Amino acid sequence: MRCEQVAVVNVFYETMSVQKTSEIPLYPWSSFIGTLGGLLGLYTGMSFVSVMEILEWIFDMALYGWRKPRHDEMGPKRRAILACEHSCHT
């Protein structure tokens, strides 16, 4: 090795102190998992209640709502109201 190809580098620091940097998450994993579980429970609960209400409505319609009331099953007041509504529209 020849002497012309050697370089010497001198490094000088202003101060001889060390600064340590650390990162702390703004939103910890435990809070994230808890919030995610709460939201999923909320939306799943709401959709489950909605499905149950729709099933109840279909069940009620199957039992009571899809058949027309017969005149012999109605009381006299209800028959009079239906007769009045029918005559007013024709």
From TrEMBL:
Cell compartment(s), UniProt: Membrane
Membrane topology: Multi-pass membrane protein
GO cellular component: plasma membrane
Single annotated GO MF: ligand-gated sodium channel activity
Keyword tags: Ion channel, Ion transport, Membrane, Sodium, Sodium channel, Sodium transport, Transmembrane, Transmembrane helix, Transport
Pfam families referenced in this protein's UniProt entry, alphabetically: ASC
InterPro entries with a match to the protein in the record: ENaC
Segments crossing the lipid bilayer: 32-59
Similarity section: Belongs to the amiloride-sensitive sodium channel (TC 1.A.6) family.
Protein name according to UniProt: Uncharacterized protein
Taxonomic lineage of the native organism: Eukaryota, Metazoa, Ecdysozoa, Arthropoda, Crustacea
